[in-house]
Amino acid sequence: MIATLCQHRIVIPYSPEQIPIDLGLERGRELLTALDQRRSVRMFSEQPVPWEAIEIAVAAANTAPSGAHQQPWTFVATNDPSTKHKIRVAAEAEERENYEGGRLPDAWREAIAPLGTNSDKSYLDVVPWIVVAFAQKSTPMPDGTLRKNYYVNESVGIACGLFINALHSMGLATLTHTPNPMGFLMEIFQRPATERPYILFPIGYPAENCEVPDLQRKPLSEALVRFPVD
After folding, report:
1. Is a pLDDT exceeding 90 seen at residue 230?
2. 216 inside domain
3. Cα radius of gyration rounded to whole Å, the chain
4. The pTM is what?
5. What range defines the domain where residue 52 resides?
6. Which three-class secondary structure state does DSSP give residue 44?
7. Which residues, 6+ apart, have CB-to-CB distance to 211 below 8 Å?
8. Across-strand partners of 9?
9. Residues 80-112 as b or e (16 or more Cβ within 10 Å = b)
10. How many domains in the chain?
11. Residue 26 maps to a domain
12. How many CA atoms lie within 13 A of 100 on its CB side?
């Protein structure tokens, strides 16, 4: 494979596998069926999860497209009981302010009521792993300067979506937990000021008695618009 310079860009040949459309559609339907079984979980098993599963999921996230290919994300993982407990204590303190302290507006309380969520985050002590995705507002360069990153939210959001997909494909469950504010994660994980917490992912297998809200996803007719209409 030979890299060539093209208008100050280094490019390489790209020839992906040509998949017959029938096989491609079949693969797409299989992926849809698998993803449609994914649910966010708050009841986890203590069953161990190997480190390699975390590596695979982050490697999948790392394939995400990003603005100017700046890849403005850092995934920090821990299975240390003490660290997980610190996260639980801090997250519950913030969530008590949200749920019991009146920090959440009434409209948001009404929106999340069907989920039955509250300030109890005991699952953070149970899960084998906690992974936090940090968004890099800027990136330190070798000369000591800071490079501003662009389209950070969009880029990190796509990476997190691939991360969730990879976890589900391995039979693992997670939850997109965003206690607000999340500054305590900067201190616990000793992250630089150029980053900010984006999503906290508890990761493990669903508990045997796991239950999830009986929710329905919006139909395709509401999610997709074909224009112009035939």
Report:
1. no
2. no
3. 20
4. 0.92
5. 39-206
6. strand
7. 43
8. 6
9. eeeebebbbebbbebbebbbeeeebeeeeeeee
10. 1
11. no
12. 8
Cβ 138 vs Cβ 194: under 8 Å:
yes
In a domain, 229, yes or no: no
In-domain check, residue 213: no
Residue 73 parent element (H or E): strand 73-78
Q: How many Cα atoms sit within 13 Å of 75 on the Cβ side?
A: 24
* Residue 22 φ/ψ, nearest 5 degrees: -65, -45
* pLDDT tens per residue across span 10-58: 899 999 999 999 999 999 999 999 999 999 999 999 999 999 999 999 9
Cα 200 to Cα 8: distance, rounded to the nearest angstrom: 38
Tokens of 224: 């997709």
Q: Name residues whose C-beta falls within 8 Å of residue 200's C-beta, 6 or more positions apart in sequence.
A: 87, 91, 130, 131, 132, 177, 178, 179, 182, 185
Q: What is the pLDDT of residues 80-134, one digit of tens each?
A: 999 999 999 999 999 888 888 878 888 988 888 888 888 899 999 999 999 999 9
Cβ atoms of 58 and 98 closer than 8 Å: no
> Quick one: tokens of 130?
């906690």
Whether 7 has a pLDDT exceeding 80, the answer reads: no
CATH number at residue 118: 3.40.109.10
